[in-house]
Structure formats: structure tokens, C-alpha cells
């Protein structure tokens, strides 16, 4: 066993490999030499579909109680998350896992902490029918929409058919979610060549982030979202949360406790952190990551530098006009918040 490299040695090689591969891609732009890239603003090609998706995202009538909308747990006034450890669902049920942000989620390789939905369309049907979240059914959701003449007309003009199906509902929600990207973060401006966009401390933080190996997992345009990685690579992560991670999807025991690497964009807004929501502050999250993923104990000032850098990843938040929802008709099923 003596010659067998430990997982942390393996990992260091992997980090060095990733960093030098990035360096080899050096081009003319400063950012071409970096393992992370700026985000591009989203260009809307189907505005009517996006508008409809926005209404659905904010419509609590897609839940049994008539009280919970997508925005309840992915509050776009709070970084697309709910800022509580685990979400609150139908009848005040305690949710099993922390709500990830919907901001920039279109850039992730898959949806959910364990990646069980391959894209936003597949994802959007889940919460409506999840008994612990919106606790409705797809049929009841579609019936509700069909009972509201303005919705019927809007679906018809967007999709060109009278059917009004759950597939149309999820397609419209996904089209809206694709607009929720957050370009022009100060750090992106730095990547694009504006050397004054970040302070000396923030730059030190980025260098530490890069040189310590955080970028091996948090890389690319979303500073994450591109792979599944073990939580507790060097040292086990202790939690009461029963989530198994990727193994629950693939059945592969080696992927137990592997989770989708979360994006670090807007991370200043999306506390608390980790799938169990156990880290209340960025300082705690950075300390835990250093210890259990890299076997590294950051000093107080190193930790503060990395935290300062992470706060430069807050981008321009989506500018939304609050949608006014069409009223229920006499035929619309009434909400059942207490039964
Ligand atoms: C009761 C709270 C709640 C409601 C309501 C809710 N979500 Fe979520 N959402 C969550 C939680 C918790 C997760 C993580 C679940 C997991 O990974 O197992 C999640 C995950 C997601 C993700 C995946 C993000 C990523 O990076 O993996 C997207 C996208 C999303 N929700 C969109 C929606 C949409 C669209 C709706 C409305 C149709 C909605 N959610 C309703 C709590 C909620
Ligand atoms: C081996 C891959 C890996 C490395 C290296 C790594 N991370 Fe992570 N990071 C993850 C994974 C996976 C998660 C989600 C874990 C979970 O919640 O179970 C995560 C979560 C986070 C979160 C919480 C984000 C959220 O929204 O909940 C922060 C902040 C973070 N990492 C920062 C860092 C920093 C800073 C470093 C370097 C000191 C680092 N990470 C190194 C894989 C990694």
C-alpha cells in the first residue's frame, strides 16, 4: 500500500493538470489564460414565451395550496434562492435539501444537486407534482390553466395550438429561466481587461482560489456546475442530512456523496451554503471547503481575501417587471391551503 498515492495526491496532480491545461490555452485576451470565463448576457429570441414563463414562475396557483410559487423558494429578490437551510413546502413541511439558485442554472450540466434532471424543461415539472413542495399534479395544474381564458389565449398565441399541455408549461418556464443570467459582475469586467474592476485584496483572493485548487472544481463560465464531485474528498463531511448525492441517480456506490459542484456566481446572495444548508456564512463555507476538499487550513486573512473575491462574482440581477397574473374564472378550482 505504500506506493499507492492518497486521494489527495491524486487530486493535486489533477489540479496541476487542470491549471496547466488552462495556461496552455493562453490567447490574446487575459481571460483566455484563466480557468474561468465571463458570462454573456442572454439574448431573448422568443419574448412572448418568456413572458408566459415568467407568469407561471410567479403563479402560486400551480400549487395545491394556491400559496407556493417557484418564486417562493427561488426568490428573485434574493438571488434566486430562499436563504433558509432547507425549503418549506406544502403545509409547512420541512424540505430535505437546500434550494439552489435558479440564476445561471441554464449553464449547469444538469439540474438538482444530484443532477437527476438533465435540463430545465425536465426539471420544471418536478416541483409542481412533488408532495413536499407544491403538492399538485400535472393534470390539476393544466386544468387550472385551462380554466383561465387569458392563459388559454396566451398559450395559444405562443405555441400555436389549443391543447395547453404540461410540456408547454415546462417549456415556457424553462424559456424564462434561460433569461436569468447575471452578466457584468465586477470579476467579469476584470477578466475582460478592466484591471481596476477589483481591489488588490480581491485579486489576492482570486489568486489563492486559483493556486489552492478551488478552480479544479469551480471553473468555467459558472464557477461550477460543470461536474459532480465528492463532498469531503480529503476529510469526510459530517452531516445529518440523508442525501446520497449522485449515487442515488446512477446506482454507482463510488459516487456516494458526490454532488453537482454549485455555481459560485452570486454566492454572496445565496446563503446558507452546501446541500444541507449547514454553513451560514461564506467564511464558514470557505473554511470547510479548504479543509475537506483540499486539506488546507486558511489563515484568517487568507479566508477574508477569498471571501472578498467571491463577492466580486455578484452579477447584474435580472431586471424584472413584476408580472400581473390573469384572475381565476368562476370555473377555476379553489386553493386548498388547509385541507
Ligand atoms: C418548496 C420549495 C421549492 C419550490 C416551490 C420550487 N423549488 Fe426548485 N428547488 C427546490 C429545491 C429544494 C431544489 C433542490 C432539490 C434537489 O436538488 O434535490 C430545487 C431545485 C431547482 C432547480 C435546479 C437548480 C440547480 O442548479 O440544480 C431549478 C432550475 C428549480 N428548482 C426551478 C424551480 C421551478 C421552475 C419551480 C416552479 C415550477 C420550482 N423550482 C419550485 C425548492 C423549490
Ligand atoms: C473537489 C472539488 C471541489 C473543490 C476543490 C472545492 N470545491 Fe467548493 N464545492 C464542491 C462541491 C461538490 C460543493 C457542494 C457540496 C455540498 O453541498 O455537498 C461545493 C460547495 C462550495 C460552496 C457553497 C456553494 C453553495 O451555493 O452552497 C462554496 C462557497 C465553495 N464550494 C467554495 C470553494 C472554495 C473557496 C474552494 C477552495 C478553497 C472550493 N470550494 C474547493 C466542490 C469543490
TrEMBL record:
Matches recorded under InterPro entries: Cyt_c-like_dom (IPR009056), Cyt_c-like_dom_sf (IPR036909), Cytochrome_c_Peroxidase/MauG (IPR051395), Di-haem_cyt_c_peroxidsae (IPR004852), MauG/Cytc_peroxidase (IPR026259)
Keywords in alphabetical order: Heme, Iron, Metal-binding, Oxidoreductase, Periplasm, Peroxidase, Signal
Taxonomic superkingdom: Bacteria
UniProt subcellular location: Periplasm
Leader sequence segment: 1-32
Transmembrane stretches, start-end: none
Stored SUPFAM superfamilies: Cytochrome c
PROSITE patterns, A to Z: CYTC (PS51007)
GO molecular function, one term: cytochrome-c peroxidase activity
Pfam families linked to this entry: CCP_MauG, Cytochrom_C
Enzyme superclass (EC): oxidoreductase
Major localisation: periplasm
Domain spans labelled Cytochrome c: 48-156, 200-314
EC number in record: 1.11.1.5
Entry protein name: Cytochrome c551 peroxidase
Species this protein is from: Comamonas brasiliensis
Gene name, Swiss-Prot/TrEMBL: ccp
Amino acid at each position: 500500500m505504500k506506493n499507492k498515492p492518497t486521494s489527495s495526491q491524486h487530486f493535486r496532480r489533477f489540479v496541476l493538470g487542470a491549471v496547466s491545461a488552462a495556461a496552455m490555452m493562453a490567447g490574446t485576451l487575459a481571460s483566455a489564460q484563466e480557468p474561468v470565463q465571463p458570462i454573456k448576457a442572454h439574448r431573448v429570441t422568443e419574448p412572448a414565451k418568456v413572458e408566459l414563463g415568467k407568469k407561471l414562475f410567479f403563479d402560486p396557483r400551480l400549487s395545491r395550496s394556491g400559496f407556493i410559487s417557484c418564486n417562493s423558494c427561488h426568490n428573485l429578490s434574493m438571488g434566486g434562492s430562499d436563504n433558509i437551510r432547507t425549503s418549506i413546502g406544502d403545509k409547512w413541511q420541512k424540505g430535505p435539501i437546500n434550494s439552489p439558485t435558479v440564476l445561471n442554472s441554464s449553464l449547469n450540466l444538469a439540474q438538482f444537486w444530484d443532477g437527476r434532471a438533465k435540463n430545465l424543461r425536465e426539471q420544471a415539472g418536478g416541483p409542481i407534482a412533488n408532495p413536499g413542495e407544491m403538492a399538485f399534479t400535472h393534470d390539476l395544474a393544466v386544468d387550472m390553466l385551462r380554466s383561465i381564458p387569458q392563459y388559454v389565449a396566451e398559450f395559444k398565441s405562443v405555441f400555436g395550438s389549443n391543447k395547453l399541455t404540461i410540456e408547454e408549461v415546462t417549456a415556457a418556464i424553462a424559456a424564462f429561466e434561460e433569461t436569468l443570467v447575471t452578466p457584468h459582475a465586477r470579476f467579469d469586467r476584470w477578466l475582460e481587461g478592466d484591471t481596476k474592476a477589483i481591489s488588490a485584496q480581491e485579486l489576492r483572493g482570486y489568486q489563492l482560489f486559483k493556486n489552492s485548487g478551488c478552480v479544479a472544481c469551480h471553473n468555467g463560465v459558472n464557477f461550477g456546475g460543470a461536474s459532480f464531485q465528492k463532498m469531503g474528498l480529503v476529510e469526510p463531511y459530517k452531516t445529518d442530512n440523508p442525501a446520497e448525492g449522485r449515487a442515488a441517480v446512477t446506482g454507482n456506490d463510488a459516487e456516494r456523496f458526490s454532488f453537482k459542484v454549485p455555481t459560485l456566481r452570486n454566492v454572496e446572495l445565496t446563503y446558507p451554503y452546501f446541500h444541507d444548508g449547514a454553513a451560514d456564512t461564506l467564511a464558514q463555507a470557505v473554511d470547510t471547503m479548504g479543509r475537506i476538499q483540499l486539506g488546507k487550513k486558511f489563515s484568517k486573512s487568507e479566508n477574508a481575501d477569498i471571501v472578498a473575491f467571491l463577492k466580486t462574482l455578484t452579477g447584474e440581477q435580472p431586471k424584472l417587471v413584476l408580472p400581473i397574473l390573469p384572475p381565476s374564472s368562476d370555473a377555476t378550482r379553489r386553493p386548498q391551503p388547509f385541507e
